[in-house]
Amino acid sequence: MSHQKYRVCIDACQKCANACDHCSTACLQEDNVAMMERCIRLDIDCAALCRFAAAAMARSSEHVSDICQLCAELCEACAAECATHEHDHCVECADACRSCAQACQAMVA
Amino acid sequence: MSHQKYRVCIDACQKCANACDHCSTACLQEDNVAMMERCIRLDIDCAALCRFAAAAMARSSEHVSDICQLCAELCEACAAECATHEHDHCVECADACRSCAQACQAMVA
Amino acid sequence: MSHQKYRVCIDACQKCANACDHCSTACLQEDNVAMMERCIRLDIDCAALCRFAAAAMARSSEHVSDICQLCAELCEACAAECATHEHDHCVECADACRSCAQACQAMVA
Amino acid sequence: MSHQKYRVCIDACQKCANACDHCSTACLQEDNVAMMERCIRLDIDCAALCRFAAAAMARSSEHVSDICQLCAELCEACAAECATHEHDHCVECADACRSCAQACQAMVA
Question: Entry's CDD domains (chains A, B, C, D) (predicted)?
Fold first, then answer.
């Protein structure tokens, strides 16, 4: 099936979306929640776009390349923000975002 | 992390969403596409709801149970329709939908 | 067009989704953000489900009734939470959620 | 409220999403459904991205400009395909896609 060539990137997008969605909730429960505003907002954007990108790849959309390019940008922004925090969920989210950005860039290339 | 209890169901939802999204595109390329109308429409509904359910679980939403109950219903309807077709993508989609319905029902119970 | 019978409910869902999405961001910028945790989380759930419901109605999905029933439940929960806060965005969001719940219930009936 | 500056573009995205979602279903019911494959696939992509863009604007996302740029591209592609068909739903969808592309480009500028 043609969508199998997207398998690695779909998995990376879904792992990243889950990490971002979890991070957004966990940030809201931190003592310093006011400091987590940008992290939460980027988490929400990134999670939604990663799920859209996974769906587009599963449908073998003709726009996969442009979608993955935007997804890589949002993942990098979210990774950079998460990396400034020491909460476990932020560290894990930063890792998932970086991996997803790389997988998306490989898809674009 | 609290969202880990949802791991099996999140994975089932994502596998199902990918199978449905792929099936919708593959159905559109079949010779008998007119016969695939309902399959394609249920694929689209089911894929989108499965991705929403996965996101809700990753966020540890307080509405997880109600969402998973609706997801199980749509998965069962999509599985029943896919099972009436012999295309490989329909067979695989029916399997993924049944597995997801079971995982969602286990979450509700 | 058959989707025209859904026009009022689609509009209510989209207005509610926009109010919820806006409220989630505005809550994150309030001084008492820790008190807004549940409001933000319900906003996120409600916005995403309202957009899914609008899409399902625009596609004349056979599952419109079940989807609108769940949407009404989430809207009512979000309205009840928003109504406990005095921020303008919460008051406006509570109104939009109540209107959407009514439109969804009318669709189910 | 800061999201009010996005009002025109949010409305255009939502109108476009509804037109695309409706067109995808209506195409599946046409006699010449095999000829509508690309139209249906672009409708699905465009509808989902327009709803994501509307949500991002309602949240005043910092990535609104990049998201609207991609949205404009998909809208233009969908408008061009729809314009090659004479079905009422395709003509209406092409109009909604063109209007949305213009609104998104104005947002980017």
Answer: DUF326 (cd08026)
